[in-house]
Amino acid sequence: MSWKKLTVITCILFFFAALPLPGPAEPAAAPLRLETGDPPLVALTFDDGPRGATTGPLLDGLALREVPATFFLVGERIQGNEELIRRMALDGHQIGVHTYGHVILKSLSRQDFDLQVGKTRALLTDVLGEGEFWLRPPYGMIDRTDAQWAGSPLVLWSVDPEDWKDSDVDRIVSAVLEHVGDGDIILMHDIFHSSVDAALRVVDALLSQGYCFVTVEQLMEERQLTPENGVQYRRCPPA
Ligand code: ZN
After folding, report:
1. Could you give the CA distance from residue 178 to residue 196 in angstroms, rounded to a whole number?
2. How far is the CA of 32 from the centre of ligand 1 (A)?
3. Ligand 1 centroid from CA 36, angstroms
4. I want to staple 81 with a disulfide (CB 3.0 to 4.6 A). Which of 50, 68, 92, 161 is the partner?
């Protein structure tokens, strides 16, 4: 399975019971449809954090723009970043799991799977209280058996600018803007300064094009947002 193939996977795998887990080149679910009159929606997602030096400025930039995002956290980065994670939640971002040690979720024993996913969920519960904490498997790789243990929706992506490949902000921004459309899930990494700069430029560009930013969970609610406690951004361009 190559990175190139992973980049074209669309976009959400729902509960394992309903999965046929796809091969890498097959869409797992139909893209969300834009209904007439609805603004285009997009979900910005960040993997591999948190990292104070970069996630902090990203949260500042997102808050300034009132834009929600979704963060898939690496468990071993949670300790020492508790305040940052609490701020994510308070700012209205969705928080999920990206395993404890950024491992490939294939051929793991149940015990090892729980050490990667269950342990990370437990750490997040300690910081944030009870939550579902959806799972994004590192590299988008997971086998059917491990998927059955996920206990939450699995989230992949549909637009991948490969922001880890270099620190060329212009290239990363262009790679997103050339491929993004309604219902897309953009994959980025909040551990790089260049990714933070690029993400905020993407936000400004897409807001100016009429996009609304939502979390992945909000996207899956098919534009029916249900504000609960706390901040629930649904950032759209000014009318
Ligand atoms: Zn990752």
Report:
1. 18
2. 24
3. 35
4. 50
**Does 7 fall in a domain?**
no
State the SS3 of 127-163.
HHCCCCCCECCHHHCECHHHHHCCCCCEECCCECCCC
The model's pTM: 0.83
Q: Is residue 164 part of a domain?
A: yes
Classify residue 123: in a domain, yes or no: yes
93-147, pLDDT tens digit by residue? 999 999 999 999 998 999 999 999 999 999 999 999 999 999 999 999 999 888 8
List phi, psi (to 5°) of 159: -130, 120
Active site residues: 47, 189
CA of 216 to the centre of ligand 1 (A): 17
The boundaries of the domain holding residue 89 are 39-222
235 belongs to a structural domain? no
CA gap 38, 235 in Å, rounded: 14
Q: What is the tally of structural domains in the chain?
A: 1
Tell me how far the alpha carbon of residue 102 lies from the centroid of ligand 1, in angstroms. 6
- Mean pLDDT of the 47-73 span: 97
- Is the pLDDT assigned to residue 201 strictly greater than 70? yes
Who surrounds ion ligand 1 at CB < 5 A? 47-48, 138
Output the average pLDDT for the chain.
83
188 phi/psi in degrees, rounded to 5: -140, 180
Q: Provide the CATH number for the domain around residue 166.
A: 3.20.20.370
